[in-house]
Amino acid sequence: MTCAHVVDVALKKTDGVDTVDVSLNKGLATVKLKAGNHVSVPQLWNLLHEKGYTPKTTVVVVKGVAENVAGTARLKVTGTNDVLVLSADPKAAAAFMDVRTRTGQTIQVQGTMEPGKNLKAAVPLQVRQVRP
Predict the structure, then answer these.
(1) Cβ neighbours of residue 102 closer than 8 Å, sequence gap 6 or more
(2) Cβ 115 vs Cβ 44: under 8 Å
(3) Which domains does the chain have, with CATH numbers?
(4) pLDDT tens per residue, range 21-40
(5) pLDDT, tens digit, for every residue of 41-83?
(6) What pLDDT was estimated at residue 110?
(7) Which residues are 32's β-sheet partners?
(8) What DSSP string runs through 81-121?
């Protein structure tokens, strides 16, 4: 059994996962989630860690309603009770400012999340791109 197979099977068994593509050469797993899923990035990181792998930077595309709570930009994820804290990606500061102008609007955010030592802990989504 290959490492890619172990990761592929583990991710596919996760409720809410639609498709998985694992490339050991690239050190990359691409996971597409089903609409209405309740899977969080920290859950996927923890699963990979349990299988003996160290999760790395994760690219995320998520849809939700932009919020501003006490000066903190957030995204209320569509179809869930999840709320992601948003932060500026140093390479795309304008995109983060765009989020701040869209409070109350449904938007799609693309960005990255960096795992910390506690893989279950909430981490901010660094905004790279925003679409209506």
Answers:
(1) 66, 130, 132
(2) no
(3) 3-56 (3.30.70.100), 59-131 (2.40.50.140)
(4) 998 888 899 999 998 888 99
(5) 999 999 999 999 899 999 999 999 999 999 999 999 998 889 9
(6) 98
(7) 19
(8) S-EEEEEE-TT-HHHHHHHHTTTTSEEEEEEEE---SSTTS
